[in-house]
Design goal:
Blueprint: E1 7-10, H1 20-34, E2 39-44, H2 56-66, E3 76-77, H3 82-94, E4 98-101, H4 105-108, E5 130-133, E6 139-144, E7 148-153, H5 154-158, E8 161-164, H6 172-182, E9 187-191, H7 198-208, E10 214-218, E11 220-222, H8 243-253, H9 267-277, E12 288-290
The structure holds glutamic acid and zinc ion (ZN).
């Protein structure tokens, strides 16, 4: 099984239960890995305890098992990697690639989300402050396997971004890049809400001399009321008694054409069908998909 150089992963944040949108992302990364005999790793992105929902980690693992997913190796938790993140941030700070920012939320209001660079050359010490990474005045681009060419100018569209919050919490952008490289991930398959984050991650990879994985961003599932399924909006857990039909619906969301009877199979059988018939080129080239259209 592990003769393929492909290493994929699923990296849920335990701020809530898995929902249909996360099932679609998990399924895409799983099938993309298994269809070429690759590994599929699981990483819990538990960087933000205040936003963690009690019980969410167990519920996520339980859902994945109920839906038939099997991951390789031990589950990795980002909460066990603080030492590595701290060491990296210290190095970036000492090299002047990152700097301390003492701006209050209020001070940052009105700059349209783009950091105005107030503390860039202030030389603040690194405690009681957020740490921001300097971004170059450059456009970063990559070719997503589904969404095609994506480009973003880091200076003009993103600005210097936070890699450690003032309260000491580490930023997703930094942790994800470090951990994907540490785990040897060759292929990142995830929701299209993270397309906008990818250029920041490309810059971090370049800065740290890390290899760049391939990227595949699947459409984000939108609820009938226009809600994005996910973080801010707390969805109910995936039902445990409907795994096969929901897996079949997730396959359809990914442009695959499972036969209707597959909804009566067991979860493992649905996944096996998905592996045997996986065609990434059929995934809709769209950033969002309305859940209502899939029923
Ligand atoms: N933890 C992130 C999320 O749940 C996904 C990270 C990733 O796949 O890069 O949105
Ligand atoms: Zn500042």
């Amino acid at each position: 099984m592990n003769d393929s150089p492909y290493i994929g992963r699923f990296a849920p944040t335990p701020s809530g239960y898995l929902h249909f949108g996360s099932l679609v992302a998990a399924l895409a990364s799983y099938l993309d890995a298994r269809s070429v005999g690759g590994q599929w790793l699981l990483r819990m992105e538990d960087l933000d305890p205040p936003r963690e929902m009690p019980g969410a980690q167990d519920a996520i693992l339980h859902s994945l098992e109920t839906y038939g997913f099997e991951w390789d190796g031990e589950l990795v938790r980002q909460s066990a990697r603080h030492h590595e993140y701290t060491a990296l941030i210290r190095r970036l700070f000492e090299q002047g690639l990152a700097y301390a920012c003492t701006c209050s939320r209020k001070q940052l209001e009105g700059s349209g989300g783009l950091y105005p660079g107030t503390c860039r050359n202030a030389g603040h010490p690194d405690h009681d402050a957020a740490i921001r990474l300097r971004v170059p005045e450059l456009e970063y681009r990559f070719t997503d396997r589904v969404q095609g060419e994506f480009r973003q100018h880091l200076g003009r569209e993103v600005g210097d971004f936070v890699i450690r919050r003032r309260d000491g919490l580490f930023a997703y952008q930094l942790a994800v890049v470090l951990d994907d490289a540490w785990q040897g991930v060759t292929d990142v398959v995830r929701g299209a809400d993270l397309l906008d984050s990818t250029p920041r991650q490309l810059y971090l990879q370049e800065l740290l001399g890390l290899p760049q994985p391939r990227y595949l961003h699947v459409p984000l599932i939108i609820q009938p009321d226009g809600h994005k399924l996910g973080k801010s909006y707390r969805s109910p857990p995936l039902p445990t008694d409907q795994a096969p039909p929901l897996l079949v619906r997730a396959l359809r969301a990914l442009g695959q054409r499972p036969p209707a009877e597959l909804g009566n199979a067991n979860p493992r059988e649905v996944l096996a069908w998905g592996i045997a018939h996986w065609d990434a080129s059929s995934i809709p080239r769209s950033r969002t998909l309305a859940e209502a259209q899939l029923r």
